[in-house]
Design a protein that fits this description.
The structure is a single chain. This protein is of the alpha+beta class. The chain has 12 helices and 12 strands. The strands form 4 sheets. Strands 5, 6, 7, 8, 9 and 10 form a 6-stranded antiparallel sheet that branches. A two-stranded antiparallel ribbon has the order 1-4. The protein has a two-stranded antiparallel sheet with strand order 2-3. A hairpin with a 5-residue loop joins strand 9 and strand 10. The two termini are about 65 Å apart.
């Protein structure tokens, strides 16, 4: 076997034990990083353009930021408000337990999504997707806190126990280099932890980790003050081994922890496929939307810069004959209204206009008009590429018919709908994972207490009420004399009283089920 070829991931390391595991994952992450490096550099530049923060390659403050404008137009169209959980039975049979469970999980997920500010999480992922091409979010479970008592026993504080969704920066996420999400072998999340956080999470092993990163991006080198020094910790979910690994990588890497599947999710990973994984039909590599009209946007920047430059040149300037009197030129251009001054000299010329040559503004103005027209054509080309028609931007013409406006609106919707569907399905899968994680970690009693759900068996209550009334009716009938002519009337009164009693008995449970 050649030195640069391996057959299994174990062949990535010659070491054994924890050191071998750290070396193996270091090479796995390096390979994943190299595989996506071109896209990552591209996405970082696009974020600079979107935010009008240019590096050396984009050092131009005279940009017509059509990228920002298009993204701002797409943002509310792709996602604008938090979806309402709708959990129903897979099969529509009469299963009361399934109905109660569905209602209970709807309430639970609504509670979690509001507590975790899910609208902000999904909104951030949407923005990452529209700008850089990928959005990442995950589900997390925070277990109850263990409290050691003075007598040596332990108690659990369930107030901190919760399931939540969490936004994750796209630049701090890695995955294996497969082309289908179902075949991805591992995913990894990058954390930056201080010394106190390392010791709190990993105990003594946290003290051995070298702090080689900084908390603030503006600090190029780690400070001697440990407050700003951080460690780069990778959280790796290995689907093949069913393990979750925390480690620092590189030559001085340390294996901090390794545990079996902590969440017990059906597909192991605590996240759906990253938003934007469907951009490329042949792989999971993101394709930023800006890439499709990047050349047109750059041409638009050039044209806009030329227009601004020509506008700066539209000034009433000129030159005059050196033999002309300076005082005559000054009086000609700087005199007050209605003021006439004597001409001291003509420099041999017969007309004063022959003494001055003006800048050819007409040619400059014509050039500006041509460039402005070309600018409009470029903008229209960008709209054709992106599918954002003028009707979506609220722009219309008085001469257009309602049918023409409807056609433009339908065209825009057909182009935007794939983006909407991808975000919609991604959010659905994220909520499904949150539901699955909740079911795995909460008992029915905890969910009932948390949601305030009242479980009312209306059929059993009705059956028991009818049985009691039938017994009472039978006892009352025994007291009646069959020979009494008023007996039929008394029986009718008993039935009416029984019906009234039944309604009174069912009033409270029916009120509890009102709306469900």
């Amino acid at each position: 076997m050649q030195a640069d070829q391996v057959e299994t991931k174990e062949d990535l390391s010659l070491s054994k034990g924890d050191a071998g595991l750290v070396e193996m994952w270091t090479k796995e992450l390096e390979n994943a990083n190299n595989y996506e490096q071109k896209w990552r550099d591209e996405a970082a530049k696009y974020f600079d353009i979107y935010k009008d923060q240019y590096n050396s390659d984009y050092n131009d403050s005279k940009r017509y930021n059509v990228f920002w404008a298009n993204t701002q137009t797409l943002r509310p169209l792709v996602f604008s408000r938090l979806p309402k959980p709708n959990i129903t039975q897979r099969f529509t049979d009469e299963n009361e337990i399934a109905k109660i469970a569905s209602e209970m999980m709807e309430r639970t997920i609504s509670l979690y999504m509001n507590d975790a500010d899910a609208e902000d999480v999904i909104g951030k992922c949407r923005d990452d997707y529209l700008v850089g091409g990928r959005g990442v979010a995950r589900v997390c479970y925070d277990p109850e806190e263990v409290i050691e008592m003075e007598d040596g026993t332990e108690e659990f504080d369930s107030s901190e126990k919760k399931c939540r969704i969490e936004y994750w920066p796209w630049e701090d996420f890695r995955m294996s280099t497969e082309k289908e999400w179902s075949k991805v072998r591992w995913i990894a999340f990058r954390h930056y932890k201080s010394r106190d956080e390392l010791v709190e999470d990993f105990g003594a092993k946290g003290k051995a980790v070298s702090l080689n990163k900084t908390r603030l991006d503006s600090i190029d080198k780690p400070s001697e003050n440990e407050l700003f020094k951080m460690a780069e910790v990778w959280e790796i979910w290995d689907k093949e081994s069913g393990e979750v690994i925390f480690a620092t990588l590189g030559g001085d890497g340390v294996l901090l922890s390794k545990e079996k599947d902590p969440y017990n999710l059906r597909n192991f990973f605590p996240m759906p496929a990253p938003l934007g994984s469907k951009s490329d039909p042949c792989s999971l590599m993101p394709i930023p939307l800006y890439r499709y009209y990047k050349s047109q946007a750059e041409e638009l920047n050039q044209v806009d810069a030329r227009i601004k430059s020509l506008i700066q040149q539209c000034k009433a300037t000129g030159i005059y004959n050196s033999v002309a009197e300076g005082s005559d030129i000054e009086a000609l251009f700087n005199g007050e209204d209605g003021t006439f001054t004597p001409l001291k000299g003509t420099g041999g010329l017969q007309k004063a206009s022959d003494m001055v040559l003006f800048k050819p503004l007409q040619e400059i103005i014509l050039a500006i008009r041509e460039l402005q027209q070309h600018k409009i054509e470029i903008i229209n080309a960008i709209r054709d590429i992106t599918g954002i028609s003028d009707i979506v931007r609220g722009v219309s013409m008085a001469s257009e018919t309602a049918t023409a406006q409807q056609l433009k609106g339908n065209f825009a919707i057909s182009r935007i709908q794939p983006l909407q569907k991808e975000v919609e399905f991604w959010a659905r899968d994220l909520i499904r994972l949150l539901t699955e994680l909740t079911v795995e970690n909460y008992s029915t009693e905890e969910l009932i207490a948390m949601t305030g759900l009242q479980v009312v068996d209306i059929n059993t209550i009705a059956s028991q009420a009818k049985d009691r009334l039938m017994l009472l009716m039978a006892e009352a009938q025994k007291q009646l004399n069959p020979q009494d002519p008023e007996t039929p009337q008394k029986l009718d009164m008993l039935k009416q009283q029984a019906e009234k009693g039944f309604k009174e008995t069912m009033k409270a449970p029916l009120e509890a089920l009102k709306g469900y």
